[in-house]
């Protein structure tokens, strides 16, 4: 279906949802990337600050005033002033000089002079090793570069003190912030391109699914399942690669169990051979066999969007198929019903004509002549019914009575041969007999082509079965059709005909009987024979 009563509001559709989901994922990934980059930038910033701090500490430890003051182990105002001057030039947050006991000899805060160094990271430099550490001192959390102070300023001698240069952590985070700000335009560009790509992809996807919302697609799928389940004929869908992608329940009953996708050449080789190379146009009522049984097949081609698909493959096709016997039985029922309609119409017409005649005679005061006409009709009807007294299949009798009225309307002399008989045993085959006799007599009427003529029906039975002969005085079957007269679609009456006799023949053969035609002098005769119920059937 192409129209739905309920439509999703704008922004709630597939496009809006895809864009929102994409933006959520993109923002989440961006946030995760920012966290990872922040941690990486922090580590890099801390490493660079640590290298800078330890370099400054090395230079300070080589100053004579520093190693001499550390070796003396006492506070020296000149030492503190010079170290603080160097701190200002190095833009460090602090430079601290301590003696071998860890007592501060130089510090940016005068009140902290003479106090022990804090942070717990003096063990390595006092042991003669340089380190970079992150510790919390009296000024706060900082990155420190610590080196030992050697006696006389010569490495490898005696350690007489320690120099600690530090940068507080806000400086490291300031560097991280600068790096992130420099990347902000790229993050915004990625977000913008991602949003534009999400909108484009959502629009493209919606166009590919025929502008349908997921809820509409789900509704279509449910309707499709319901339609396939309701169909009495089998339906399969085959893609351009020759794979059965969809099969209705009725199709699986006729084809046997299958799991889509399945190769059509395996499931139904004859149909695969017929459709090999693509299906250029629609085909209807194609006669094929399925597991040895004749079926009627309708084929509807499906073109892929934009013409042929990859590798030159077309869009495949949909096939609907049904048992040929069921289709013919349905056609017979329709023909039977149409025949009864014609009979009723003919009877109505004839009775109206007779009533008009009787009414006119009575109005003219010619009652005796009206009585003679009425007696004649009653006598003719009685004679006809007398001929059918031994035919004990009521529906067949009713059909012949109706055909008599139809023949009178057409100006045809319709007779039932004297001695016709049929026992009630044949009531079980009444449908087949009514269909066969009705079709044969109607064909006989049409063979006279509106000209006066005679049609005679003979019905009889014997211990082996029953026989029906329908004889007409028409021109007979054209010679070119005599050999294929009972094939489907063969008729001398134009296109769209030729199904009645084929259906009758199929039903008769299904009961083990035969349908033949012959030509006698001036007469065309159709002969139908059925074996008696319980008598073994011969080959059809």
Write the SSE topology:
Elements lengths: L13 H48 L2 H9 L4 H14 L3 E6 L4 E3 L16 H4 L4 E7 L2 E11 L8 E10 H40 L5 H17 L3 E5 L4 E5 L1 H7 L6 E2 H4 L1 H6 L8 E8 L2 E9 L15 E7 H40 L3 H21 L6 H17 L2 E4 L13 H18 L6 E9 L2 E8 L27 H11 L3 E7 L2 E9 L9
Parallel strand pairs: 12-13
Antiparallel strand pairs: 1-2, 1-5, 3-4, 4-5, 6-7, 6-11, 7-8, 9-10, 10-11, 13-14, 14-16, 15-16
Helix pairs in contact: 1-5, 10-11, 10-12, 10-13, 10-14, 12-13, 13-14
EC number: 2.7.13.3
Keywords: ATP-binding, Cell membrane, Kinase, Membrane, Nucleotide-binding, Transferase, Transmembrane, Transmembrane helix
GO molecular function, one term: ATP binding
In short:
With about 550 residues, this protein is of the alpha+beta class. It has 14 helices and 16 strands.
């Amino acid at each position: 279906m192409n129209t739905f009563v309920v439509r999703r509001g704008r922004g709630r559709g597939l496009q809006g949802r895809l864009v929102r989901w994409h933006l959520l994922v993109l923002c989440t990934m961006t946030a995760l990337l920012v966290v990872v980059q922040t941690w990486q930038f922090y580590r890099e910033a801390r490493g660079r600050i640590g290298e800078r701090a330890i370099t400054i500490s090395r230079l300070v430890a080589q100053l004579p005033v520093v190693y001499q003051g550390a070796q003396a182990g006492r506070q020296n105002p000149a030492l503190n002033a010079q170290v603080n001057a160097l701190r200002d030039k190095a833009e460090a947050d602090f430079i601290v000089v301590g003696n071998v006991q860890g007592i501060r000899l130089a510090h940016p805060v005068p009140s902290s002079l003479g106090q022990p160094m804090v942070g717990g990271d003096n063990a390595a430099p006092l042991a003669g090793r340089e380190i970079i550490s992150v510790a919390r001192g009296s000024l706060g959390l900082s990155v420190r570069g610590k080196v030992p102070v050697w006696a006389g300023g010569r490495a490898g001698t005696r350690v007489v003190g320690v120099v600690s240069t530090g940068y507080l952590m806000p400086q490291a985070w300031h560097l991280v912030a600068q790096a992130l700000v420099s990347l902000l335009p790229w993050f915004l560009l990625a977000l913008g391109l991602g949003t534009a790509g999400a909108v484009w992809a959502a629009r493209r996807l919606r166009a590919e699914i025929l502008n349908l919302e997921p809820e509409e697609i789900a509704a279509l799928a449910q309707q499709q399942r319901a339609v396939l389940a309701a169909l009495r004929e089998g339906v399969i869908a085959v893609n351009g690669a020759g794979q059965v992608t969809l099969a209705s329940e009725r199709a699986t009953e006729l084809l046997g169990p299958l799991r889509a996708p399945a190769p059509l050449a395996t499931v139904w080789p004859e149909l695969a051979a017929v459709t090999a190379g693509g299906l250029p146009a629609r085909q209807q009522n194609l006669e094929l066999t399925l597991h040895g049984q004749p079926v009627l097949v309708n084929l509807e081609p499906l073109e892929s969007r934009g013409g042929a698909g990859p590798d030159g493959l077309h869009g495949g096709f949909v096939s609907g198929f049904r048992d040929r016997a069921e289709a013919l039985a349905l056609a017979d029922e329709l023909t039977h019903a149409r025949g009864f309609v014609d009979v009723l119409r003919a009877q109505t017409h004839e009775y109206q004509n007779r009533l008009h005649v009787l009414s006119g005679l009575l109005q003219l005061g010619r009652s005796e002549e009206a009585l003679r006409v009425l007696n004649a009709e009653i006598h003719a009807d009685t004679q006809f019914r007398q001929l059918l007294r031994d035919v004990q299949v009521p529906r067949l009798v009713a059909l012949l009575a109706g055909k008599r009225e139809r023949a009178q309307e057409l100006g045809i002399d319709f007779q039932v041969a004297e001695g016709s008989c049929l026992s009630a045993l044949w009531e079980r085959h009444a449908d087949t007999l009514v269909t066969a006799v009705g079709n044969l007599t109607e064909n006989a009427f049409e063979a006279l082509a509106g000209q006066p003529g005679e049609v005679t029906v003979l019905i009889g039975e014997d211990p082996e079965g029953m026989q029906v002969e329908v004889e007409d005085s028409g021109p007979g079957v054209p010679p070119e059709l005599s050999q294929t007269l009972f094939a489907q679609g063969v008729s001398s009456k134009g296109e769209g005909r030729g199904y009645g006799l084929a259906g009758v023949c199929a039903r008769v053969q299904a009961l083990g009987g035969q349908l033949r035609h012959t030509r006698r002098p001036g007469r065309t005769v159709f002969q139908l024979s059925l074996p008696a119920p319980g008598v073994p059937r011969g080959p059809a």
